[in-house]
Amino acid sequence: MGQLDGKTALVTGGTTGIGLATARRFAAEGAHVFITGRRQEVLDAAVAEIGANATGVRSDVADLADLDRLYAAVTEQGRSIDVLFANAGGGEFSTLEQVTEEHFDSIFDINVKGMLFTVQKALPLLNDGASVILTGSTAATTGAEAFGVYAASKAAVRSFVRTWANELKDRAIRVNTLVPGPIDTPGIAGLAPDAEQAAQLHSALANQVPLGRMGRPDEAASAALFLASDQSSFITGTELFVDGGLNQV
User: Fold this and answer.
1) Beta bridge partners of residue 83, listed in sequence order
2) Residue 177, beta-bridge partner list
3) pLDDT at site 28
4) The model scores a pTM over 0.90
5) pLDDT of residue 14
6) Domains (range + CATH), the chain
7) Which residues of the chain have pLDDT under 70?
8) Has 150 been annotated as catalytic?
9) Reading across the β-sheet that carries 8-11, which strands appear in turn?
10) E strands along the chain, which residues?
11) Contact 122, 131 (CB under 8 A)
12) pLDDT (0 to 100) of residue 205
């Protein structure tokens, strides 16, 4: 018996990194998993990796029409949603002096607007007692240089969780934040302009973590499974840090 047997889960940004690792774990625990991604070839590869319990829907969470098509695809299969992992997000470095309107809009469109409407548009499909998980970031509270817009967008995510946990309590829908620290994903490597600087960034991040290394996507997926399952049935409105102690000690 898997922890998610017979359940339906949706993982946005489910084609790489934490999203893919979590989608694999959810499927292994018995769930049928819908995943989204913006690139069809990467989406198809992720579905093939996860297996028969996966359905891929090409979707950009910042595009509300795409979100409508996503939830129509869930409905067309006659399914409702037990677990929503609103994971799609992104960021890039920019100091206060360098921030442009395009930089601000691109990050807030995905991390804030996209997050909000991913959850709002899911409401008619969410079963009572469902688990909603939003991906936050340790950057929301650390004040890392040149990461201000991204950090602000993730602070908004934390605020959403508090409010939505309160608003959805009458349906017994739990809303929590998964807060990864430095996790070794393609997204982290993509913050650097070349392979050499990516290696330097990897080393610098690992050196900041009390456990002395970056985390693995499967470690974040294990935490997401805990929040998705009945193991966390009395937990809502909170943050679960998967950061090797970065923000704790």
Assistant:
1) 9, 131
2) 134, 239
3) 98
4) yes
5) 97
6) 8-242 (3.40.50.720)
7) 190-191
8) yes
9) 54-58, 32-37, 8-11, 81-86, 126-135, 174-180, 239-242
10) 8-11, 32-37, 54-58, 81-86, 126-135, 174-180, 239-242
11) no
12) 85
Q: Please state, in angstroms and as integers, the Cα–Cα distance from residue 237 to each residue in 22, 129, 244, following that order.
A: 20, 14, 22
d(CA 222, CA 156): 24
What residues does 240 pair with on adjacent strands? 178
Closest CA to 6 of 33, 32, 35: 32
User: Which residue among 26, 147, 150, 226 is the active-site one?
Assistant: 150
E strand segments, 111-231: 126-135, 174-180
Residue whose C-alpha is closest to residue 17's, from 182, 148, 131: 182
Q: Quote the radius of gyration of the chain (alpha carbons, Å).
A: 17
Res 196: pLDDT: 81
N-term to C-term CA, the chain: 37
pLDDT at 194: 79
**Contact by Cβ (8 Å): 173, 167:** no
Tokens at 206, concatenated: 């690992």
